[in-house]
Amino acid sequence: MLEDTSFAIHPGQKKQMKDTNYKDIGNVLEVVKTDNGASVKTESGTLFIKFYRDDIVRFVFNPFGETTLKSSPALITDGEKTEVSVSEKNGEILLTSAKLQVYLDKSPLRITVTDPDGRLLVKEGAKGMGYKESKEIICFKEMHPEDHFYGFGEKTGFLDKRGEKMTMWNSDVYAPHNPETDSLYQSIPYFMTLRNGFAHGVFLDNTFKTTFDFRSEEANYSFSAEGGQINYYVMAGPTPKDVLEQYTYLTGRIPIPPKWAIGYHQSRYSYETEQEVRELANNFIEKGIPLDVIYLDIHYMDGYRVFTFDKERFPNPKQLVEDLRAQGIRIVPIVDPGVKEDPEYYIYQEGIRGDFFCKYIEGNIYFGDVWPGNSAFPDFTNSKVRRWWGEKHKFYSDLGIEGIWNDMNEPAVFNETKSMDVKVMHDNDGDPRTHRELHNIYGLMMGEATYSGMKKQLRGNRPFLLTRAGYSGVQRYAAVWTGDNRSFWEHLQMSIPMIMNLGLSGIPFAGADVGGFAHDSNGELLARWTQVGAFTPYFRNHSALGFARQEPWSFGEKYEKIIKRYIELRYKWLPHFYSLFAEAHYTGTPVMRPLMMEYQKDENTYNLSDQFMVGDNVIIAPIMQPAVQHRAVYLPEGNWVDYWTEEVYKGGKHHLVRADLNTLPIFVKQGSILAHGPVKRSTEIKNEKLTLHLYYGEYTSSSFKLYDDDGSTFEYEQGGYLIKTFDVKCEKDQISLTISNEGRYKPAWKEIELVVHGAHENIALFINGEEKYLQKKGDYTLKVTL
Ligand code: MIG
């Protein structure tokens, strides 16, 4: 391949001299006020400006035809009625809502968006919106020296994407995941800008291949698409959490996951037989290592035909699922989109008879080579097909299965382009579009089909779905894992900013293959990776065929002990995690956060890629290098308590901390609360007990919302939940704890144990205004039962 030689940088290479001549969308000819904004006629088309709320405004422009307000399936709302005033002053047009101001320069048309105080969000300068005859569209915006950029879904590299150029094109990338690896499995054409401590968001809802360029020019960034309309939203912030709330108002939030899905998951490509799966489960039980899920990768199927089991390897899947379930372990099978071309296979037959597969405009079915060999691909852009595919999952739910793993749904195909022919014409519910346009939503639509189907089959129980591919909105259906990483320390390091940016992209339920997928893992790496995994929202150990096994005991007792300790720690923290998942469900705020989300004015956090927060009061600073027992940790303002030693660290500076292989550095902010449960072997074991840890610190305060519900049904949508809010206020010699309750769920735990850390003598504890306890002895710990 010529690209792999020096020919790639030959001076005559055309590629290097890409045509950058965009046509500007021209001058404003006329402005007409509309319900939620304005319709602006320009020399080359019509621009719609539509407010979705006070704090969200959309810009749509079609340079090649009628502008339409149609949205991609990422959107779950048409917005709400918003007061917008339109006026004209000194030749400039101004649209205002309570939280945003949009200025239009008329010739040429240039847009500026500010907050009500005139603080700049986005501004067009020398260049604005444009297009090329090739049907490309582009938007330039001014870039300021203070700008930092986050989000963009699943990208390699560091947290802050300033200086990067990124392409969105769902791609199956086996193994590399290098800093320069660009398109991965997810396309989330959205980002958040942080400028001088204020955040705002931009979402380019365009399903074509899109590019976000923060590299090519010093004073501008751009976002562009290979086709379609200019169609983007500006979200006002001003905090990163506000931006997430605004973005997920548009694209939806995660359902509360079933409790079992936030436990520990064990996977391998593949556990190949029923026997092997049973032995695996027994091993966990004998060793007392907690486990909630075992995955079945592609070997469970009959010749890789989805919705089948191989009769020899898995003679009695129903019994297997039932027996494991009795042990508190669930089975999650893989389901790929490719359907084997086999006239004697029922799914293929139904797909052909129902006309459910992707086709060319000429009518012939598109076939691609994947695991089962030549295969057809359901056209998930068609709601009939989604319904059919969803109903097919009865095959799994009848066996007692409640979780599905969608892989290869970019879709990945074994060919030169690695995917489906872009000329394939999707049905798109009667509005046919090419694969070039809809490629990036194939995985999202498969997710919708699978999630909705499973939800129906499970009759009231929550399904769990894991997906590799997605587009904005994928969080409504699935958790996301970051695909085929490798057992390298560098990949452990990279997983942290990647998962944080997924969280900043509306996808809070995310994680990487713990231990690394390809390549041989080792004890030290697995131990350190498990420490991290225990605090990432999605926690699964997975590894590939042909490489070292990496179950917790694979590298000897020394490592097994440490790995077990951290899986147990995850179970201890489950009530805390569950509360954070509920927060994500209600607000869009991610479970795992960059420090910048809580400390947006603190520059030290802006590109901090090797530490993260769990909720708003815990900092995890893992060791991610071999043979290293020390690291620098940045702690923002406030006092921080070492979770293990209770040593107090002053914030606003860096510290050198020591952490032997047994230790994951965890810091808890003074004044805050952690919720712990008992260590259990599985979330199915019902020995509920709740312990709250309150970290005393003079003149500190916090608010913690403990969330609980039955963990398995959708009753929480009808008030079947409990939110207990704990407002903490610590003063010189006193702690006031105010507790309020919401919801009607009666939790399994009957009382809460409260452990106060760091309280010195004579501290009075007030609960809802009543003095409950006076600390007498100097043992620095209070124990009361609430
Ligand atoms: O390598 O199904 O990312 O997790 O084990 C191609 C086999 C197919 C890719 C997934 C990986 C999974 C594997 N799959």
Automatic annotation (TrEMBL):
Residues 255-580 form the Glycoside hydrolase family 31 TIM barrel domain. Keywords: Glycosidase, Hydrolase. InterPro entries: DUF5110 (IPR033403), Gal_mutarotase_sf_dom (IPR011013), GH (IPR017853), Glyco_hydro_31_AS (IPR030458), Glyco_hydro_31_C (IPR048395), Glyco_hydro_31_CS (IPR030459), Glyco_hydro_31_N_dom (IPR025887), Glyco_hydro_31_TIM (IPR000322). PROSITE patterns: GLYCOSYL_HYDROL_F31_1, GLYCOSYL_HYDROL_F31_2. Residues 689-758 form the DUF5110 domain. Residues 588-674 form the Glycosyl hydrolase family 31 C-terminal domain. Gene3D superfamilies: Glycosidases, glycosyl hydrolase (family 31), Golgi alpha-mannosidase II. SUPFAM superfamilies: (Trans)glycosidases (SSF51445), Galactose mutarotase-like (SSF74650), Glycosyl hydrolase domain (SSF51011). Pfam families: DUF5110, Gal_mutarotas_2, Glyco_hydro_31_2nd, Glyco_hydro_31_3rd. Residues 47-213 form the Glycoside hydrolase family 31 N-terminal domain. One of its GO terms (biological process) is carbohydrate metabolic process. One of its GO terms (molecular function) is alpha-glucosidase activity. Belongs to the glycosyl hydrolase 31 family. This is Alpha-glucosidase. It comes from Bacillus methanolicus PB1.
